[in-house]
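Annotators were shown the component list below and the corresponding predicted structure, then asked to write short factual statements about the assembly.
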Amino acid sequence: MRLSKYSLFQAIVKLIPLLVLFFLVFSETDSYFTNFQYFSFNFVYILIFYWVLKSPEVLGYGFIFLAGLVNDVVIGLPIGSSSIAYLILAGCAAYIRAMTVHISVLSDWIAFIPSVAFTNSIYFIVLSVFLEIDINYLSLLLETAITIIIYPLFAILFNIFRDTFFKTYA
Amino acid sequence: MQRRADRDDFIIAVRSALLKKGTQQKFSLLALIVISGILLSLEIFDNRYLNFFRSAVKDVIYRSSFVISAPSNIATFSFEKVTNHFGIYKENELLREELEKYKNEESQVGYLQTENKKLKESIEAQYSFTYEPIISKVLVDKGSPFLKSVIINRGSNKNIKKGMPVLDKTNLVGRVIDVNFFSSRVLLLSDLNSRIPVIIEPNGYQGILVGTGKEFGELKFLQAKYDLNFGDKVFTSGSDGIFYPGIPIGTIDLDKDNDLQTDKIKVKYYSDLSQLYLVNVLKIEEEEKGLAE
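Structure shown to annotators:
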């Protein structure tokens, strides 16, 4: 009885990152935090990279693909562009997971830098090819930089969340 | 030997990341990237069936987004209500002052109307616009670094078409750029891609209002010499043939330190584009009337 109670709790807790991802892409919540003039970052990138790297069973590739489609529709971008970006980032995280033996927040952070740079490069190329719009590259560069800088903070918070809920009831 | 081992490690890691389904993954990453690429390429094709499918998907997602955003929107709305409540006394004082000012200006209006009528008569042909406002509710207003746009709850079912101007009360806030069955996307004036031909009163200068991605616009392509003042009013000029002339947009807004004769001339919008709730989409029919009439 007790065991099944824990299993249900664990199943719900494991859904939280996925629910947060879909809430961010579906709702009006500004996942880029663009309301602050010089402080915008892409929280979805941090979420995908961390969870694919640490607990890939929590965020399935199929869900990441769907989240990208929803994000494109809600924001008004060509359908498929965010999916490609999210999946490339997930691919980078999966590659790093396969390659890395010693895991620490610092090593994750270092790996996050080229991953985001590569993902955003592909993303902006896709946008410039499929969408004839002006893009403020300076603000996007700033956003990318802040996303990278702020990653360790969220990684630590996610680590605490994982250590508290995932391992206790594992 | 070492190099070969490194290369093998790399290939194994790439295969494991992209091709294998991995830990509890139901789909291969590479397959999903390919599907995304196919979906992107389909965006180029303007096919009736594809457009039908896209419209249906977008409508469903917009409605879902509206429902999911509802709790946070209600919380924000309630907070703003409470905050506004404390400012009511001050606002009332300001409104009284403004009312007095408008009462004084009212006497001028009659004279200007007569003058305007005479001037119109002196033009060979005149255009009149009949327009029907379609009241729409903003469903989704999601911030994005790429597009400043909102989704409204009216689409082709209410005869909304691309290019129609969208007003907040009487002020221009954007234009329709994408139409589905039950919803449409409105590109706001603040978007980087927004370009609106405008006229600046009282001097009658013409220019293009360009979105900056921020809460103010920028005037471009003005004549070489101009004399603008703080508070000059900006209206649509109608020279694009899409918007009818005279829709209020905002006022010239410059920092005191800035010189007016610089390349950057800011326009402060009348409406707060981040607080749109109910908007009017204008269905316009233009009629040319000769003097004979």
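Statements collected:
1. The helical segments of chain B are 2-19, 29-42, 48-86, 88-121.
2. DSSP finds four helices and twelve strands in chain B.
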